[in-house]
Design goal:
homotetramer, 195 residues, alpha/beta
Chain lengths: 195, 195, 195, 195
């Protein structure tokens, strides 16, 4: 991560809507990790995009996440869609292309459906892709690891959010180090993980 | 999955006979996942084949599965065999070849025996192969992951059924989306998985 | 496994001595799986070799295993050694070479020490190697998987014993099928595995 | 490991400071495994280096580890740093280069941060890298395996300390075998691992 210019990287948070979250085990932990990634991206100047699956029917992206973007930016960074892949949301590829984004940090739900299809599309578009291992989730626990392993085999990076953002910082001399450390502490109260 | 034309894909369900199922932990969950895959394949127009290991002695494929095929199609889609590999069932390769099937979605039992040997044969025949991670099972729990990892290393895809079928759908605009969502719900009552 | 001529395959059981076994969790299960592999190899005509680490000091290979070889063959198939790698036991490479063995099925203890170094040596000798996932063990549980993954990455096959031997059989028509099935049942009473 | 000349290998123990250790589950086990690796390296003539993250603020490397080096050598083998990667500690690359070190055995904390970035840097420098699976740790348990898998995919070796050091010994004839066995026993009292 620490070699790509930050301008070419974007965080893409897929379908974090309450309709889906309520069916997911540990949904609050997942929401907190996505909020951490979103706040970290804001801090480090990484563009952040949200998608919503058929929001007219299924409701909006969790306000806990969208409220982390500056109010005037929310609309431009929110993409409704009917396709499962986030890259097929109307306008998404144009925006990524306009900003010369060639590396996506991917979070959201569900791992075997919209996250998987987004990653496959990104690979087909020859974009680099980093899945946040602590930022993706799904209803069926045992479906998770086979999907992650499949995506890793086609070249997708799979890393926890801290590995990604600490790599971008690079060291304690980074001007945002203190603010980032505060973020890590803030989200350290997240419910304990299962080992 | 979403790039292969649907006509060239087949679902192959191996040896789901009661004799074997009764020795397998979580057999009811496995049977339900195979039924889900079979119903999904029917819905999406994916040809489905069953094999039975020496059925004269060991009994038929579970009627819960075969009853999901239209009655007039059952016989033509059921292959008795003595070899462990499903591809060595008499007539199987001819049928796959006649239908120009070059990608198999594989489910059934047992992972280290008939499923493994079928996947090895498919690799030797240069057919693509997708193992359903939630659709295969065996008596010995710890034997599962080494077999899956071995097959993945020789190019076998390993994905849960939902990842496969949602990829074929591609989005909420697909004409079978509603019916498929109903199927997912129907099989959501399956006994909870172990994480 | 089902493509190598059986004559070129050998089972190599490393250092199954009581001194080491008594320090290993689930030693009785491991001993049973090695006995199963040894009996299966005898049945299928696969040469079987045992090594013992400094047996003058540390005692003999468990008689439960050596007693499975015909009495007159035991001495010629038992290799004492001081090196950790079984392939560095005096006379071992000559015997393997004389019998034109180019594929080793490997079992025994300890996974991170003698098993690991044997597999590394085999890779350096360009011999094929299949680790029996249910036939290897060690004192420290968490040391197991990293070693297996490391060996898999350099081309070592990793499979449970049933996957290996059922592949050699190929089907219910094999003349040894019934006898092998009886063996599987005999060893099915092995203490239940941890999932 | 057993092919690299021992002079070209170094043990690098990253940021084992109490500030970080107190936030880590099983910190005492981790500290013991790093002490084992350090003692083993001393015994076998492998140079050992420690780094400390901003020690003026965050305190020194645990004396349990530094006290294992001869008193006169401690200062020259201890590298304070502000960057997360150990290879960016002032003077580190020069020392490694002067000693013609081209293979690092890596231990310490935290796996997704300083250990990860050190391994990435080593890969970029085309140095060989062996992560000690039992010698690395971090606050968040679930973040561990994705990082290990990511590093393994870019060519990093991942092995437990015993696999590494027993490979360097090669056999019971090695002059340090008895002393090493005593070390293994001394650290065998380490709190039991989780399977």
């Amino acid at each position: 991560m620490n070699e790509a210019p930050i301008q070419s990287v974007a965080l893409l948070v897929v379908d974090m809507q309450d309709t889906f979250l309520k069916a997911i085990p540990d949904a609050q932990t997942l929401l907190a990790r996505c909020a951490f990634a979103t706040e970290a991206a804001q801090l480090l100047g990484i563009r952040t995009f949200f998608t919503a699956q058929v929001p007219d029917k299924l409701g909006p992206v969790s306000p806990r996440l969208t409220s982390l973007l500056p109010e005037e930016a929310r609309e431009a960074h929110l993409f409704p869609k009917t396709a499962f892949s986030a890259l097929q949301a109307p306008g998404m590829m144009e925006v990524l292309s306009n900003h010369q984004i060639d590396h996506l940090i991917l979070a959201g739900i569900e791992t075997p459906i919209c996250v998987y299809q987004t990653a496959i599309d990104a690979a087909n578009e020859e974009m680099a892709m980093t899945l946040l291992s602590d930022g993706i989730g799904g209803r069926r626990r045992d479906d998770r690891q086979p999907v992650i392993d499949s995506l890793a085999r086609i070249g997708c990076h799979v890393l926890p959010a801290e590995a990604v953002f600490y790599s971008i910082l690079g060291g304690a001399d980074h001007p945002s180090f203190k603010a980032f450390t505060a973020l890590v502490k803030k989200y350290g109260d997240t419910a304990p993980q299962q080992s």
